Amino acid sequence: MRRTFRVGTVTAAIAATAALTATLVSTGTAQAGPRHGSGSTTTIATPTVFGHRGAAGYRPEHTASGYRLGAQLGADYLEPDLVPTKDGQLVDRHEPEIGGTTDVASHPEFASRKRTVTIDGVKTTGWFTFDFTLKELRTLRAVERIPDVRQHNTLYNGLDRIPTLQEDIDQVESLSHRYHRTIGIVPEIKHSTFFRSIGLPMEDRVLSVLRRNGLAGRHPVIPTVIQSFEVANLRYLHARTPLPLVQLTSATGAPADFVAAGDPRTYADITSAGGLRQVATYATWLGPEKNQIVPRDAAQKLLAPTSLVADAHRAGLKVVPYTFRNENTFLPADYRRGTNPGDYGDALAEYRLFYSLGVDGVFSDDSDTAVQARALWIAAGRPHR
């Protein structure tokens, strides 16, 4: 049975949560200290809340309206995933295939662009950003990626175009001034090895945009962190910028650059004690999948936590797991409420668990929930397991 929403109720709830978030921030739960005379603040709270793809729990992901709402709901950083266009521009999409996140299928002028491409060993059929110029992509509009779970978000289908990295930076700076607090940006470079193989390497393009905006040096105008699931590109970036880097990992598989090079190491090797020491030579953060920290059994029930957080801390790394979401379908069975996959479960309990395990940040689709859980955990004296 599909969950239905009352628009007024949801809108009122978001507004109320935003007001609560503003109170939490203003009382010092989030940040403190002046920044460049702008009236905003400089110290990012811990655990840090990374607004995953904007505010994907409430708006179609990777949209200006989603980033704006993410900031309103208290995100400390906003996260755009980056992919290139045919003419080498950097735009925000979780994947280069855009059939599921835009209205491209309704544009007959682009029907012939649909094709099958193998990216990192996976065959995908659809429309791809690297077959479109930026001007062509500007004619498309964003839609909700998972409408069966987030039916409410379909209200906002068609309202936003695909942003560029430059627009992200401009918006984050504007939002920092608007909300009188520092908001950072944490772009993820997607499919580095694949894009290099088709003549669209991304790393220097990303650095070029960041440098133009004063974000690539030791003291960026706004806090800036770069992330990737691959290793070679993070090492490349480490040699060219002092910015903090996030080594993302998965519970299965291996970095695409390792696979392409015939390197047999996997993400399990990277997150071993020795692997983490290697990661610490080029990255500041480890970004593991949640179940690398707290595994689940076949019934999605929680198992005993692993030592990954402690191991990473011993190696000198901060830890920011992904992805925290409020809906039952994404939560462990322990925290689900009812049987509807799209209904909210006890997401606060999941945050409390991970905060108590010592994570330094969270990637969240629902920044308001992450901020509220953080405030409750701090008020309880920051209990640790």
Automatic annotation (TrEMBL):
Range of residues in the leader sequence: 1-32
Short name of any one Pfam family annotated for the protein: GDPD
GO cellular component: periplasmic space
Reactions mediated catalytically: a sn-glycero-3-phosphodiester + H2O = an alcohol + sn-glycerol 3-phosphate + H(+)
Entries under InterPro entries matching the protein: GP_PDE_dom, PLC-like_Pdiesterase_TIM-brl
GP-PDE domain segment(s): 47-374
Keyword annotations: Glycerol metabolism, Hydrolase, Signal
Family note: Belongs to the glycerophosphoryl diester phosphodiesterase family.
Name of the protein described by the UniProt record: glycerophosphodiester phosphodiesterase
Lineage, opening ranks: Bacteria, Bacillati, Actinomycetota, Actinomycetes, Jatrophihabitantales
